[in-house]
Specification:
45% of the residues lie in helices and 27% in strands. By secondary structure, the protein is α+β, with helices and mostly antiparallel strands. The protein is elongated, with a radius of gyration of 20 Å.
């Protein structure tokens, strides 16, 4: 570490603590490292990940809770997938629970508030050739790693059901 960055791990920990990184998310820490220290992008990521691990962050943990994302390519258009999210009747056919759409951009994205616990989520749509579309669901602000794992399993099942309905 010292040879590549000019600092030991202990020095990095002290510097990043002093910069307030304990309360920052990954992107914010990388921004601090990139602005204040002359190391390349790969080492910026290495220092940030090492710092997060040293400070006890778990996979998917952010200052405001835990998050995860999952992706699936569906044999359907981005328009059809977007409609299946924003149209309440269509959404009721594949989603077991209630959410509130907070923002929507046709063919591109949907943002939502999970009604059960006020957590948040993003859905990104990436059109592919041949009437296919990759869908990525990210759910944020979950209270624990266990809750994130449970919701990831839930969303995997719901996205499978969405795919089944749209691919018929």
């Amino acid at each position: 570490m010292k040879k590549a960055t000019g600092k030991t791990w202990l020095q990095w920990l002290k510097l990043l603590d002093a910069a307030g990184c304990k309360t920052m998310d990954h992107k914010q820490i990388v921004a601090v490292v990139s602005k204040q220290f002359a190391i390349g992008p790969w080492w910026q990521q290495m220092v940030t990940v090492g710092y997060e691990k040293a400070r006890g962050r778990q996979k998917g943990e952010r200052p405001d809770g835990f998050s995860f994302s999952l992706s699936k390519t569906i044999a359907s258009s981005a328009d059809a997938i977007h409609r299946a999210w924003v149209d309440e009747k269509q959404r009721a056919m594949w989603l077991k629970d209630s959410l509130t759409i907070t923002k929507s951009t046709p063919r591109r994205s949907v943002r939502f508030k999970w009604d059960k616990d006020d957590t948040r989520g993003n859905v990104m749509l990436y059109p592919r050739s041949g009437e296919k579309c990759q869908i990525t669901v990210e759910h944020q602000k979950l209270p624990s790693a266990a809750a994130a794992a449970q919701m990831k399993k839930y969303w995997a099942g719901r996205i499978e059901e969405l795919a089944r309905l749209l691919e018929e």
